[in-house]
Structure formats: structure tokens, C-alpha cells
Design a protein that fits this description.
Helices cover 46% and strands 16% of the residues. By secondary structure, the chain is α+β, with helices and mostly antiparallel strands. It has one domain: NADH Oxidase (3-Layer(aba) Sandwich). Strands 1, 2, 3, 4 and 5 form a 5-stranded antiparallel β-sheet that branches. The protein is globular, with a radius of gyration of 18 Å. The chain starts with a helix and ends in a 20-residue tail after the last strand. The structure holds flavin mononucleotide. Flavin mononucleotide binds at residues 13-14, 146-149, 183, 186.
Length: 199
């Protein structure tokens, strides 16, 4: 990481306008994702996170497929804002797709029946931590990224196109690229209403 964590937490924002200009090599990007997947925490150290990293043309394909799928369901007279948004994601260099392996979640439920209702929740929480690590790290390296949810609409197409096992449940998509515009100013609720401290 080339920025301290405190500043990186501030800098992580949703960037929607993305370019294809190279910042890291594909190998460095793969290393960044491997690092996050390896060290992100998971309940019972179950390591249920699964990731698909799409770069270059493979990334373009994802957003073309997504556009084709949405064109079928969004009314034609309302499609143009959707199309513009999807084209902006496609304008980026890569997308990280986050999955959770349901085989692992199910096996934990069987092994520890006392916690069976918790494992699906913990699986989502764990994925959120991984997503945050990747998002923050990408931004700290000079990328812009955002978090998208075109699942479950795109699940079947993604499974077929990249040979994804049936038990990998798609949770989110994170398109990233060279940031072309800064995010709008963000507002914050008063922290006094959100945090209680006793000492
Ligand atoms: C669990 C979760 C789901 C989100 N889903 C989407 C989404 O589907 N599309 C989107 O554009 N942004 C999504 N976001 C991004 C939020 O809208 C964004 O983080 C929030 O407005 C704060 O802005 P910032 O990311 O610039 O700090 C999601 C964020 C979280 C944490």
C-alpha cells in the first residue's frame, strides 16, 4: 500500500467515470486481489470467498452481456440512462466479481448446527470485508472503483461465460479503472448520533 490506512479510508469513494489507461500491470492487479482474498477474515476461517478478476477484453464482455440482459427488461424509452451507466463501467479496465462458495457455507451449517442461521450472514459479512479491502487498495493505487449489483440477473451468463461452479453465489461486481471524474461531495450524519462511548 502506498498511502497510510487512515487516508486510504477517506479516499475510498464510488467512482463511476472510468478509463482504460494502465496504472498497474495485470500481474500486479492479480497480486493485489490474491493478497486481499488470502488475508480477509472469514467466520471459523472458512475462506468461503471466491473471486473472478476480469481484465481488458474479458471485462468489456461482462458489461456488454449486462447491457444485453438489461435491454431485454428495461423499457426502451427508459434505457438510455442505464446504457450510459453501463458504458461508463465498460469504459474501465477491469471488474472484480465477488462470490461466496455455498458448499462451504452449507458444510459449516451441518457441522455446527447451533450456528446454522449465522453462517449465511457471516458469509456476507466476510465478503463485505473482502470487498472493502479490494476497493480501498485499488483506490490507494490510483484507481477509481464502485460497487454494483446486477446479480441475480447476470448470474447464468457469468456462470456460462467463465465456467463458474454452480455453488459459487455471485454477490457483487466492482468495476475499476483510471478515474476520469471526482465523486461528488458526500454528506455525513453527526457521529454523536451514531456512536456511543462509555468510559
Ligand atoms: C453493501 C453496499 C451496496 C452498494 N450497492 C451499490 C450499487 O448497487 N450501486 C452503486 O452504484 N453503489 C452501491 N454502493 C455504493 C454506495 O452507494 C456508496 O458507497 C455510498 O453512497 C457512499 O458513497 P462513497 O462510496 O463515495 O463513499 C453500495 C455500497 C454498499 C456498502
Amino acid at each position: 500500500m502506498n498511502k497510510d490506512l487512515y487516508q486510504a479510508i477517506i479516499d475510498r469513494r464510488s467512482f463511476y467515470e472510468l478509463g482504460k489507461e494502465k496504472i498497474l500491470s495485470d500481474e500486479e492487479l492479480a497480486k493485489l486481489v490474491r493478497h486481499a482474498v488470502k488475508y480477509a477474515p472469514s467466520a471459523f476461517n472458512s475462506q468461503s470467498a471466491r473471486v473472478l478478476l476480469l481484465l481488458g477484453n474479458e471485462h468489456d464482455k461482462l458489461w456488454t452481456y449486462t447491457k444485453d440482459i438489461l435491454r431485454e427488461i428495461v423499457p426502451a424509452d427508459r434505457f438510455s440512462p442505464t446504457e450510459a451507466k453501463l458504458d461508463a463501467f465498460r469504459g474501465g479496465y477491469g471488474t472484480v466479481l465477488y462470490f461466496e462458495d455455498q458448499t462451504i457455507v452449507k458444510s459449516l451449517q451441518e457441522k455446527f448446527p447451533l450456528y446454522q442461521e449465522n453462517f449465511p450472514v457471516w458469509s456476507l459479512q466476510s465478503s463485505g470485508m473482502l470487498q472493502y479491502i479490494v476497493w480501498t487498495t485499488l483506490v490507494s493505487e490510483g484507481y477509481g472503483a464502485s460497487l454494483q449489483h446486477y446479480n441475480p440477473l447476470i448470474d447464468e451468463k457469468v456462470k456460462k461465460a467463465w465456467n463458474i461452479p454452480d455453488d459459487w453465489k455471485l454477490l457483487s461486481q466492482m468495476p475499476f479503472g483510471k478515474p476520469l471524474a471526482n465523486p461528488d461531495q458526500k454528506t455525513f450524519l453527526p457521529l454523536e448520533d451514531r456512536i456511543k462511548i462509555f468510559k
